[in-house]
Specification:
Helix content is about 10%, strand content about 45%. It contains 5 helices and 16 strands. The protein has a 16-stranded antiparallel beta barrel. A hairpin with a 7-residue loop joins strand 13 and strand 14.
């Protein structure tokens, strides 16, 4: 695996392919854009632009000089009928993020977050609290102040390759598709980054993307498998506990790389030296296609060999719908097996994201979990949620 990664990154440096970025739907680059980049949005309101126009004018002036940033706040509340656990959870995420175009082809990206829970159990763990092996509120936890991005991006003059070095988040580019973001799409991990991949937290790493032809690309990464964004550690490569990934993919065009996308991801995570995490490795497949810039059917599957990932095997399928107001609806169904636990677990999630304006979104959702693996006395669990996001 290491040799394949080194080879892929070497190709990137050699510049024999053409460009491909690493900015997926959950990345800073995507969050800085008001729309999806493909549709013509018709917003319902100008809020909060109409409340503080001077603030946004100042931001625009900075953007003209190469510095773009945003401040947003997200909140998620959930309730469930599980006969185990607390039955409700709520938390918030405050984020300050942006990028500085320092040179023609080089930029610095940053993101600082504060993740905090309003309740004893955060939404990320409400499913587990109720007896389901399920992450029902991805990213909405109580981890406190985090440095989740601080990396340099370098791009080839002709767009041949993209390289990122620094504090990276591998979920920005590993096994992603158009509906992957927990801030704007599905909330259950079954429909975000593949739950069979033992992705590390944000930490020091290097990642490269390269175009192999007009339609094929490769993305590779090496990062800290023990990463802790609340206490960044820059001695990662001397420890030797690494997460490695290699993705080979096909797209209809590189302006639509995360909308029309079919790819295979291979990954490996070293065991932790202190025994807290076993070695794990596996493969994931994803296929999603944006039809008429409105419909996105998807199919995703994965399998892991070790015990560190959430699921041993997982298959997901579903459909997304993009509305003219940048509304977004999603419906997904997942089947999963967990190592060491008998039985299958099925998860259904449906959501509708109302885009009131570029700076205000409200997303009600429902999750239905059949045969929760850790609660055999209850046949199914239903979970209702509401997520909001406001951007300044």
């Amino acid at each position: 695996m290491i040799r394949l990664l080194v080879a892929a990154l070497s190709i990137a440096f050699a510049g024999v392919a053409s460009a491909q970025g690493l900015s997926g739907p959950s990345s800073v680059e995507a969050d800085l854009e008001p729309g999806d980049g493909l549709t013509d949005p018709q917003y319902r309101s100008d809020f909060p632009l109409n409340i503080v126009p001077g603030w946004f004018q100042w931001k625009d002036q900075l953007a003209e000089n190469g510095f773009r940033f945003s401040i947003d706040y997200l909140a998620l509340g959930q309730t469930t009928n599980a006969d185990l656990g607390t039955g409700e959870a709520a938390s918030g995420i405050a984020r300050f993020y942006g990028s500085w175009q320092a040179t023609e082809r080089g930029s610095l990206t940053f993101k600082i977050e504060d993740r905090h829970s309003y309740t004893d159990v955060a939404p990320q763990f409400l499913g587990l609290d109720g007896g389901a092996i399920s992450i029902t509120g991805t990213a909405f936890n109580d981890n406190g102040l985090l440095l989740t991005n601080l990396f340099w991006t370098q791009r080839a003059e002709n767009g041949a390759w993209t390289l990122q070095v620094g504090q990276i988040d591998v979920t920005d580019f590993v096994d992603i598709y158009g509906l992957v973001s927990p801030y704007s799409g599905f909330q259950n991990l079954s429909f975000n980054t593949n739950p069979t991949i033992n992705t590390p937290s944000q930490g020091l790493g290097i990642a490269g993307g390269v175009k192999l032809s007009e339609n094929f690309y490769a993305v590779a990464s090496v990062s800290d498998a023990n990463a802790d964004p609340s206490d960044p550690n820059f001695d990662v490569f001397s420890d030797g506990n690494l997460f490695k990934s290699l993705e080979l993919g096909y797209t209809s065009g590189f302006d639509r790389v995360y909308f029309d996308n079919i790819h295979l991801t291979l990954w490996h995570a070293d065991a932790a030296d202190d025994g807290s995490r076993p070695e794990d490795y596996g493969a994931a497949f994803s296929a999603a296609w944006f039809v008429n810039n409105k419909w996105m059917p998807f199919f995703r599957a994965g399998a892991s060999k070790g015990t560190a990932a959430l699921y041993d095997r997982s298959v997901s399928a579903g459909l997304g719908y993009y509305g003219r107001n940048t509304d977004l609806a999603g419906l997904g169904l997942n089947w999963a097996e967990a190592r060491g636990v008998d039985g299958d677990q099925f998860t259904l999630e449906a959501f509708y994201r109302f885009s009131i304006s570029p700076g205000l979104q409200i997303t009600p959702s429902i999750q239905f979990i059949s045969d929760p693996l850790l609660n055999p006395t209850q046949g199914n669990i239903t979970l209702f949620g509401v997520r909001t996001r406001i951007v300044f």
